[in-house]
Amino acid sequence: MPTIQPTIQLIEPVSHFFYSHRLKLQFWDWGREGKPALILVHGGLDHARNWDWVAKELREHFHVYALDLRGHGNSAWAPGALYSVMEHVLDLSALADIVVHSEAPDSTVRIIGHSLGAITTLMYAGVYPERVKKLVAIEGVGLPIYENQFTAADRARRWIEKVRDAENRSPHSYPDLSAAVARMKEANPFLSDEVARHLAVYGTNWNADGSLIWKFDNYARLFPPYGADVEDAAEILKRITCPSLLFWGRQSFAKDPENDPLGKLIQNCEIVKVDQAGHWLHHDQLETFLSQTKRFLLE
After folding, report:
1. Which CATH number characterizes residue 120's domain?
2. What's the first-to-final CA gap in the chain, in angstroms?
């Protein structure tokens, strides 16, 4: 099998917008009408174009859609900074309905999510188990679900204090694209120069002085003390009925889903652990991710 190189060819998706919760949100349509629908959901502080290598490969088999979560990419920032997991689930449900009611050959979708997007995907599959055919979750179990060691009052206080701190924080800017690329590689040492540059190009906006700033809303860093506690998450995860594939990078800071109590609640589940991969394993080990994902989705 030839090695898959992370090179963007002359295939560009079409930008569309839809409304959810009175927010104008973007998704990228990679085409292939008439094929089964596949939705890609990125992680926190990321954007939909991080999936370009994955989408380009999987569009041979699926009609691929990549979502910009609220407060990320080219989607609107939420008034009042409403960025709980369930608000993201709400937005995913709106896009899934659009996809199903337009050109999908059946009433179900397949979904791939990373990190926050993986949590959102898992929660959606538990809330609407009949609508998900298969799901792939990269590093999604346990983040950002609140642990039970904090009382409700403690969770509320911690969140309030973080919000107040964020109000006094100015978004960081970069003098040029190379500086933004360097920051990407600092966050993930596994990234190649090409991948880091691509992520930075699609993940930044220009300031008037020529500097760059990340597109995401800084308040999207904060998760409110509701909608994602352990007991609620456990109840929802138990309801997932579709086959699920969970990826975990062995060099990641995230929990091993095999040892996570929440991960053990997901039925009909397969776990793939990837060497020489951190939290962004679909960048770190693209060939492994694609081969395992295609096997799972197509079998």
Report:
1. 3.40.50.1820
2. 18
